[in-house]
Specification:
heterodimer; A: 114 residues; mainly beta; six-stranded mixed β-sheet; 0% helix; B: 114 residues; seven-stranded mixed β-sheet; four-stranded antiparallel β-sheet
Chain lengths: 114, 114
């Protein structure tokens, strides 16, 4: 079964506008963690933001925020005020309670237009 | 900021040859991982390592693969007899504790099997 689903293979956004990248997940564990990583064309994996399943508030890190809707099992990444340097592949990932590995989604390619 | 170091950044090898990919995790981290990303595809978990032994491995991690922490600082992935389909980006990651959002990825080694 697909644990992490990213339904948007590619997205375009105008510079300075906000964009939402979708992520839904599937788990029966009560405790889990959700992660977003950015992979620019150079290939490295850059950690962006984390949300724990018991966190009461949505996570925020600078221009990144995570719209966590637990009942819907979604953890969408919101990037505000997009910049040209935000153009990259974005991966959603999950760690379940009984395990320490990350399971990744297929990724979304974001292109920021000037 | 502490980082995970991977060497080499790119390796080309003949099919059937052995390769060793090297990683230096962050010094106070206790959990180590290898992931693989075939070009244009999702990031896949290979193996996790804790307390000098494998704690979890995926179906991909068959008898051709092995991991080792030979000297307390390096963490290596060995592929005994490479196949064309082993061509991929290999990421090493480390974490202080999987319960925290402390997964740090290296910049990756791009392995090309010819």
């Amino acid at each position: 079964a697909q644990k992490i689903t990213q339904t948007q293979p590619g997205m375009f956004v105008q510079e300075k506008e906000a964009v939402t990248l979708d992520c839904t997940y599937d788990t029966s564990d009560p405790s889990y963690g959700l992660f977003w990583y950015k992979q620019p064309s150079s290939g490295e994996m850059i950690f962006l933001i984390y949300q724990g399943s018991y966190d009461q508030q949505n996570a925020t890190e600078g221009r990144y925020s995570l719209n966590f809707q637990k009942a819907r099992k979604s953890a969408n990444l919101v990037i505000s005020a997009s910049q040209l340097g935000d153009s990259a592949m974005y991966f959603c990932a999950m760690r379940e309670e009984y395990g320490n590995k990350l399971v990744f989604g297929a990724g979304t390619i974001l292109r920021v237009k000037s | 900021e502490p980082e995970v170091t991977q060497t080499p950044s790119h390796q080309v090898t003949q099919m059937g040859q052995e390769v060793i990919l090297r990683c230096v995790p962050i010094s106070n981290h206790l959990y180590f991982y290898w992931y693989r990303q075939i070009l244009g595809q999702k990031v896949e978990f290979l193996v996790s390592f804790y307390n000098n032994e494998i704690s979890e491995k995926s179906e991909i991690f068959d008898d051709q693969f092995s991991v080792e922490r030979p000297d307390g600082s390096n963490f290596t992935l060995k592929i005994r007899s490479t196949k064309l389909e082993d061509s991929a980006m290999y990421f090493c990651a480390s974490s202080e504790s999987p319960g925290l959002y402390g997964y740090t990825f290296g910049s990756g080694t791009r392995l090309t099997v010819v």
